Amino acid sequence: MMQFAADTARQLGGHKLVLSSGKARKQAHSFYEYLGYEKDGYRFVLKL
To answer: DSSP H helical segments within the chain, as ranges?
Structure first.
Protein backbone atom coordinates (compact mmCIF):
# COMPACT_ATOMS: atom_id res chain seq x y z
CA MET A 1 0.00 0.00 0.00
CA MET A 2 2.78 2.46 0.88
CA GLN A 3 4.61 1.72 -2.38
CA PHE A 4 1.38 2.17 -4.34
CA ALA A 5 0.91 5.61 -2.76
CA ALA A 6 4.48 6.62 -3.65
CA ASP A 7 4.22 5.30 -7.21
CA THR A 8 0.89 7.05 -7.77
CA ALA A 9 2.19 10.33 -6.38
CA ARG A 10 5.24 10.18 -8.68
CA GLN A 11 3.06 9.46 -11.72
CA LEU A 12 0.94 12.50 -10.86
CA GLY A 13 3.99 14.75 -10.53
CA GLY A 14 4.30 14.68 -6.76
CA HIS A 15 7.68 15.24 -5.17
CA LYS A 16 7.06 14.37 -1.51
CA LEU A 17 4.82 12.19 0.69
CA VAL A 18 4.12 13.27 4.25
CA LEU A 19 2.50 11.14 6.93
CA SER A 20 1.55 11.68 10.53
CA SER A 21 2.05 9.16 13.30
CA GLY A 22 1.45 9.36 17.03
CA LYS A 23 4.52 10.09 19.14
CA ALA A 24 4.21 6.82 21.08
CA ARG A 25 3.99 4.56 17.99
CA LYS A 26 7.66 3.56 18.02
CA GLN A 27 7.18 0.37 15.99
CA ALA A 28 5.34 2.31 13.28
CA HIS A 29 8.17 4.86 13.18
CA SER A 30 10.70 2.07 12.71
CA PHE A 31 8.58 0.64 9.89
CA TYR A 32 8.40 4.00 8.11
CA GLU A 33 12.16 4.44 8.44
CA TYR A 34 12.66 0.94 7.05
CA LEU A 35 10.63 2.04 4.01
CA GLY A 36 12.93 5.04 3.54
CA TYR A 37 10.94 7.79 5.24
CA GLU A 38 12.92 10.29 7.32
CA LYS A 39 11.85 12.11 10.47
CA ASP A 40 11.29 15.74 9.54
CA GLY A 41 10.75 18.02 12.52
CA TYR A 42 7.79 18.30 14.82
CA ARG A 43 4.16 19.21 14.36
CA PHE A 44 2.46 21.75 16.59
CA VAL A 45 -1.30 21.83 17.13
CA LEU A 46 -3.51 24.34 18.88
CA LYS A 47 -6.69 22.65 20.12
CA LEU A 48 -9.65 25.01 20.18
So the answer is: 2-11, 26-34
Contact 21, 29 (CB under 8 A): yes
Instruction: Say how far apart CA 45 and CA 48 lie, in whole Å.
Output: 9
pTM: 0.74
Dihedral pair phi/psi, residue 28, rounded to 5°: -65, -40
Can you tell me the distance from the alpha carbon of 8 to that of 31, in angstroms, rounded to the nearest whole number? 20
Q: Cα separation of 34 and 29, whole Å?
A: 9
More confident residue, 41 or 35: 35
